[in-house]
């Protein structure tokens, strides 16, 4: 286990984040030290809380309650109803978690779900999501989102854009960046000396020789050929509909898909509850549960913390421990 605890940012307090933090502590206790950056008032009633003054106190405090590094918010939290007054606090908690990792006080950061519309309306949040804001905080230009579970690791080359905009966004330069970051992440984060990466085509049947689209011929294949010449082990472009069954997955360490649903449908089908969002390209480890704020069940006690627990375990493992 990493000697430094994982910093958990609270996310949207009107969502299921408070329940996830409490349930993760119930599951992990002191076996995997982490601490929540947030307002203790937002946690479910009856949650044992152990307030800490600094991250290094988390390991000892975890035996007594959920370690919380208090980050006061202006307003209480009403499940399912985000309060604009709390929007800036959500953003600031993320920045605080990143700062603690950057200064070495925490080993990794695990972010609980935010609600981008609430942040935009309440605090003028201008980023498409967590990933882009974390990149800005870290001072890096390029990052990629990997979804990881015991069954599959997959990276979408394009993320939160309309499907109609994917072909234009899928430039050779962008795809090369995604593949390089994926390759480097598999080497540095997962310790794979020669990662095997399967690359999907954009069109049905990977374009079928140009009869159903030419992106494979004109964009994807030339990038793969160039990177193979450098020594990367890349397989593709492949038909996406035959890439994700068990025998196919055994032949690669990660898959790169061309758009959001092409990547997320298979991993959520294979392992809906334990998928983890991991950001590659940051100078620190960041994970997150692979789901949103779930306003419809917030405050009911029905939130499933399996993905959060998996995200904490992966964060600790990648930060240098054994989760």
UniProtKB/TrEMBL annotation:
Enzyme Commission code: 1.1.1.262
InterPro entries, alphabetized: PdxA (IPR037510), PdxA_fam (IPR005255)
Pathway where it operates: Cofactor biosynthesis; pyridoxine 5'-phosphate biosynthesis; pyridoxine 5'-phosphate from D-erythrose 4-phosphate: step 4/5
Catalytic reactions of this protein: 4-(phosphooxy)-L-threonine + NAD(+) = 3-amino-2-oxopropyl phosphate + CO2 + NADH
Signal peptide: none
Cofactor binding mode and count: Binds 1 divalent metal cation per subunit. Can use ions such as Zn(2+), Mg(2+) or Co(2+).
Binding sites annotated in the UniProt record for a divalent metal cation: 160, 205, 260
KW Disulfide bond (keyword) present: no
Family note: Belongs to the PdxA family.
HAMAP family per record: PdxA
Misc remark: The active site is located at the dimer interface.
Name of the protein in its database record: 4-hydroxythreonine-4-phosphate dehydrogenase
């Amino acid at each position: 286990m990493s000697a430094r605890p994982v910093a958990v940012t609270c996310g949207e307090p009107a969502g299921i984040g408070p329940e996830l933090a409490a349930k993760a502590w119930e599951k992990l206790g002191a076996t995997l030290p982490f601490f929540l950056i947030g307002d203790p008032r937002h946690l479910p009633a009856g949650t044992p809380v152990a307030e800490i003054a600094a991250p290094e106190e988390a390991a000892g405090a975890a035996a007594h309650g959920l370690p919380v590094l208090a980050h006061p918010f202006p307003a209480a939290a009403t499940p399912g109803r985000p309060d604009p007054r709390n929007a800036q606090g959500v953003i600031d908690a993320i920045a605080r978690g990143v700062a603690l990792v950057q200064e070495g006080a925490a080993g990794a950061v695990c972010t609980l779900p935010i609600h981008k519309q609430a942040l935009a309306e309440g605090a003028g949040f201008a980023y498409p999501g967590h990933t882009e804001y974390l990149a800005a905080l870290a001072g890096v230009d390029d990052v990629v989102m990997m979804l990881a579970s015991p069954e599959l690791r997959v990276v979408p080359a394009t993320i939160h854009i309309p499907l109609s905009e994917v072909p234009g966004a899928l430039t050779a330069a962008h795809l090369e960046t995604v593949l390089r970051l994926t390759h480097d992440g598999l080497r540095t984060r997962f310790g794979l000396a020669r990662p095997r990466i399967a690359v999907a085509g954009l069109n049905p049947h990977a374009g079928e020789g140009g009869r159903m689209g030419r992106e494979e011929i004109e964009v994807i294949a030339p990038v793969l050929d160039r990177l193979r010449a450098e020594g990367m082990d890349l397989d593709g472009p492949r038909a996406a509909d035959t890439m994700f069954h068990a025998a196919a997955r055994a032949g690669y360490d990660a898959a790169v898909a061309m758009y959001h649903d092409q990547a997320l449908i298979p991993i959520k089908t294979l392992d809906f509850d334990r998928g983890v969002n991991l950001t590659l390209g940051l100078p620190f480890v960041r994970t997150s549960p692979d789901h949103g704020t779930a306003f419809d069940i917030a405050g009911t006690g029905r939130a499933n913390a399996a993905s959060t627990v998996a995200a904490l375990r992966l964060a600790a493992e990648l930060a240098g421990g054994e989760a």
